[in-house]
Amino acid sequence: MLNRFRKAWSEYPRQFWLLFFGMLFSTIGTSMIWPFLMIYLTETLEVKLTTATSLMSLNAAMGLISSFVAGAITDKFGRKWVMVVSLAMVGVVNIFMSQANSLVAFAILMSIQGTFNPLYRVAADAMVSDLIPPEKRIDAYSMLRMANNTGISLGPSIGGFVAASSYTTAFFSASSGLLLYSLAVLFFGRETLPARIVGGDVVRERFAGYDKVLGHGKYMRFIAAVTMTSISASTMWVLLSAYAKQNYGVVESQYGIIPTTNALMVVFFQIAMTAYTKRFNPLMVMAGGAFLYAVGTGSVALGSGFWWFWMSMVIMTIGELALAPTSSTYVANIAPPTMRGRYMSIYSLTWGVATGIGPLLGGFLGDLMSPRMIWVCAGTVGLISAIMFLVLRLMERKSAKELEPG
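Above: the chain's sequence. Below: its structure in token form.
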């Protein structure tokens, strides 16, 4: 891994490393709080899980709207300022969230966070596409995931102890990381938006290109499959901490090891996994990854303690190692250069839709039927997503055969 990193250091532009290290340090801060957010909301507001997850759905709904806006703004005005504003606003929201103590206050703050949070991902993904040639993109996305997960490997383990005594400190740590990263992009980042091409078709694409993206049947079927996988994953990330603490007494300081394990696996194994999986058809790789998501999330229903939940996360993470960089690269390669922001914005909607549906559905099933039903549902959705990827591969092979000369 170290040799690959040294090679990448000389091959990738400096701007890429600004994104890499900015993501690393900001994620250390944010990951001190987000794994424990459901615990914080349920205990601060003294509400049922369904009510707490409804705030996540509100957050996701605002994210869906802003993702569309982000694509248009990113393709028209550039990547840099969208990133700066997104990081700064989410950082400020974290400060106010540490002082909120009512459902209305949290609803407002979660709405603002949902509005600005997706903007960074759309702009950053488009910037990477601008900076890195197609043949190196899957490795570049893998490197960024390594940076993100290095931060996560440190954040939750520290945050578990900090949050157990002071959630305010955890929120301020998250805010500091985001605000510092926004300043770094502001002063050291450069715009990477491809030079404008004079011509009516390109101009119209920048302002009204979503109809072409939504009319791209192959891409939208892919988006549907990714959304189903994300529903399974979001249920795990949002609800497992509260489920483990409320039902089996797994406290924050102990639970923090679980997301840390996920992050460490990505840090140490992502590059090697990517080097292996990129030799295969991407849709088959994503089908296998989605199946492991299903096994990981569904297996939580069978467990009753820390080590079982830890193993469930390990299984899901193996699926993540295969699926996540492969899907990002798939989008970057399928998108026309002048519409990368639009394609990335639609791709970013998958997590927003999933976060709005998965945790809310899981919370409803947990309160109405049984907490274990959360994981039965998550595993089933993951299995459906694996089948959808397989169907996409079969359709792809059929189309290729039809194009072969008779």
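The chain has 17 helices and no strands.
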